[in-house]
Amino acid sequence: MADIINFTIDGKECVAEKGTLILQAAQENDIYIPTLCNYEGVKPQGSCRICTIKTNGQFVTACTTPVADGMEIENNTEEINDLRKSIIELLFVEGNHFCPACEMSGDCELQALAYRFQMMVPRFTFQFPKREIDARNPKILMDSNRCIRCKRCIRAIKDEKERSIFAFHGRGRNIEVHIDPDLGSKLTDELAERSVTICPVGAILPREKGFRTPIGQRKFDHEPIGSEYKY
Amino acid sequence: MSKKITIEPLTRVEGHGKVTVHLDDNNNVTQTRLHIVEFRGFERFIQGRPYWEAPVLVQRLCGICPVSHHLAAAKAMDVIVGAGTGDGLTPVAEKMRRLMHYGQVFQSHVLHFFHLVSPDLLFGINANPTIRNIIGVAMEHKDLAVQGVMMRKFGQEIIKATAGKKIHGTGAIPGGINKNLSIEERDHFLKGKDPLNVDKMIEWSLGAIEFFKNYQSKNSELIDNMAAFPSNHLSLVRKDGAMDLYHGVIRAVDANGKKILHDVDPQDYLDYIGEEVKSWTYMKFPFLTEYGKDKGWYRVGPLARLNTVDFIPSPLAQKEFEIYKAYTKGKPNNMSMHTHWARLIEVLHSAEMMKKLLNDPDLQNDNLETKGNKVYEGIGLLEAPRGTLFHHYRINDQDLIEMANLIVSTTNNNTPMNKAVEMVAKEQMNGHTIITEPMMNAVEVAIRAYDPCLSCATHALGKMPLEISLYNRNNQLIDRKRK
Ligand code: SF4
Ligand code: FES
Questions:
Q1: Range(s) within chain A of domains with CATH label 3.10.20.740
Q2: Which residue is closest in CA terms to ligand 1's atom 2?
Q3: What is the pTM of this model?
Q4: Nearest to residue B173, comparing CAs of A99, A106, A210?
């Protein structure tokens, strides 16, 4: 029998199996912690920091840190939520996110987080980077204006030899996700579809399919992201 | 010494513009110009974007009639995806789009008439601007104000049911539509609690026409003469000559009713229509190439449409059309202020068409989309509330837009609006060196007849300050008045 440990999140008594990551443990206790770079079934990497929580005076990422017995976790607090909001704002100013014309509007996790954390106007200066669409692949388009470099595509979309079809290109603030020129042709219909689904924003677009879901039937039209959790 | 007078900004036109009036040494008006901020930015903005984004992206250039841009772009994209040039959509797709469009024309025309024009009619164009606005109407003519609000709401709800949102929805997609109309949605409009049902809308539309006719018969001097001038008129008409605001062939008539553009295919518009660029404004001046820049300009919008069509294919509007036509003995109507009358007949027509469509079981069909062989260029035209709207796109072999050309209704009316301003300015300002409030009001009212969407700025219900600047020949400011 696995070891069961006790911990609290915002004062609420919780239990989990020893070794569980804080994010998963919270979810099992019906508590929402926001995520962006994390994707179920893909090894967590803790890069976006949106899942930051506080324990023992330290900020840690819930998607990579295991829960410990007796842990007292702060999650839904003003301080942490403002931190999360500032991360969302940074992502907005760093790219070109023109939601009104984006076909992923209503299905986009970044947009949904901005609504949930009530972002009005970012407190940071817009960067307006110059980026182009890459539409060379016959199945998908890459719009790096909207890419938040979460690497979900790179980590999850692989060919039969486990080689990543997407890859980072360039350095620093100019880094972009590209489709590997040699492996791009390996993108099957299923992989193409999965890459569109796995991208949290509108950076990977299916060809000629946009705007098929009417407003009112999109993922986040009626309830904020995370509404499946009670707390 | 010549003087230049600038009037800005206009109140109660959608957005803002400014008018300059040039006087000669004898204080006679030598030249007037209406300066308008134009939308060229969007044609650049859309370059490099996937073509299916166009209907959603370009509608952002207007907050008042976005549906027109949404649908014109979608029509152009229909061509690109091989769904034909107006006849290739499935019945539900075509009819949902039409319903969206009539809802749009209805609400836009209603907004214009009740909110922007009725204050001029009810209080007189020289009434104090603090009363001469929709709030004034609400205080003194409550029924009318309520009708205006409820009719607009009805139109907007139709838009929401077809496009997903009241403003900037997504309904039309290349080759079709993304939803049909549920029975519940339909019944909401057909059997809704008074006043929000289509029968009430028809009744109130008729009432608005009566109101205008009554006003016109008592004020025919003003309504018939103000900014009246002969011109050509252009619009889409259905192949049989009927009014069709969503699709048709391009027809133009001259000031006497002679056909000068013979029902040509919109896909060939470039063979017939040119655009002149002038140094003093970003807005182009379209004209019929066969007649040249000086003689080929034309009016678009409700006045033009009622001059080009042979009949209106809905019974009540047709009856009103006959009364309207009888006033000019069947000849084209060239009186700018009669645009209001024409607009209200279109309000009625839109209401009747909405009723007809709502009763059509095709709207519950599931076959939403058509696709054929892709081509790289597409043109979409429709009759927006303010007149003929042209969208033209070319894409590359990666589905990205390479070129976009939009001729918006207000651009089509550029020369006529300048003409209207010139007429009023000459009438009111010759021999004067000071601009009085009645002069400014007259200029504004003449422009407002064309319901120009000058930019997407909002108007401030008559509270927006007017500024008049007076310049001498050397462009030195010699006087400035504000109110
Ligand atoms: S393309 Fe999408 S999934 Fe890939 S890194 Fe960018 S945002 Fe993440
Ligand atoms: S979700 Fe944990 S760091 Fe991104």
A1: 4-76
A2: A199
A3: 0.89
A4: A210
